[in-house]
Amino acid sequence: MADSEWDKLTTDYESGLWINTFLQLPFLESKLKRFTEERGGAPWAVLDVGCGMGKHTLMVLKAGASYVLGFDVSKNMVEGAKMATDKFLHSQALAGSPKADFAVASVANCSSIPGARQGTFDLAICVYVMCNLQSGEQVKQAIAEIYKMLKPGGKLLIYEAHVLEYMKWNAKPEDPLTNNIAWGAPKEDGTKWSYFEDEGKPRQVTLRMNSEQEITFTNRVYTLSSWFAWILEAGFQITEFREPRADLESIPADAPEFAKQAAKSLLEMCWECTKPLKSP
Ligand SMILES: C[S@@+](CC[C@H](N)C(=O)[O-])C[C@H]1O[C@@H](n2cnc3c(N)ncnc32)[C@H](O)[C@@H]1O
């Protein structure tokens, strides 16, 4: 597989993104808690799509998953995820402790990862991955591939930057106190990015990580109607759609001002998709 633009971003990505701690993690943790309770102690298997450095692989293992298959198109990210997970599993070396496997693979054909069995996963998580694919067609194909991997009744959680907020990221704000956690390259013709016209167009996006380093990569975003259509066309039911916001009271007083500003925005969107018990 060709090198990924994410291969060189592992060190800074590992430092985290300030806002995730207050916005994304509480939401995902509460979902996983409910998921664990619903299983009532039965084993459950998770597919961590685009696992990056393994942040969510560890989260699902800590939540009680019995097995995780993490995969990513970046070889270096997979190595990082594997190292972090091995360290965690080693520290937990008890009889019946969970297991994890990793693979370098694209979500566009994840149903053919060697050794991975279709129809065996209870949950798939896909956090900030689809925006990295190269077209809407690929996103559609990716959702269909994940569908194949889930058991009937299995769930897919898709988490993405909110398309409306994303359209506002026009350039790095000069005032350091404004929301400059994330910004996008301006359009070459000087016009603003547009919700309908610029759907699926490549854009350089920069994130300021907790290491204070900036990482830049290519993203594409899609209208809400495309997202809903692709998820439903794959055969999923949409059992929840949320636009989680940060609980401003949970933001520590000593947080950087730009992070407090960012927390006020509609930053993210999340779908819980359920594979019906009976195929249509
Ligand atoms: C923003 S990071 C998110 C990583 C992880 N899900 C997390 O939340 O920490 C995006 C990840 O998607 C991966 N990625 C990009 N294209 C992919 C593809 N076609 N298939 C699988 N992973 C992909 C990148 O290598 C990168 O690790």
UniProtKB/TrEMBL annotation:
<dbReference type="GO" id="GO:0016740">
    <property type="term" value="F:transferase activity"/>
</dbReference>
<protein>
    <recommendedName>
        <fullName>Methyltransferase domain-containing protein</fullName>
    </recommendedName>
</protein>
<dbReference type="InterPro" id="IPR029063">
    <property type="entry name" value="SAM-dependent_MTases_sf"/>
</dbReference>
<keyword id="KW-0808">Transferase</keyword>
<feature type="domain" description="Methyltransferase">
    <location>
        <begin position="46"/>
        <end position="154"/>
    </location>
</feature>
<dbReference type="InterPro" id="IPR041698">
    <property type="entry name" value="Methyltransf_25"/>
</dbReference>
<dbReference type="Pfam" id="PF13649">
    <property type="entry name" value="Methyltransf_25"/>
</dbReference>
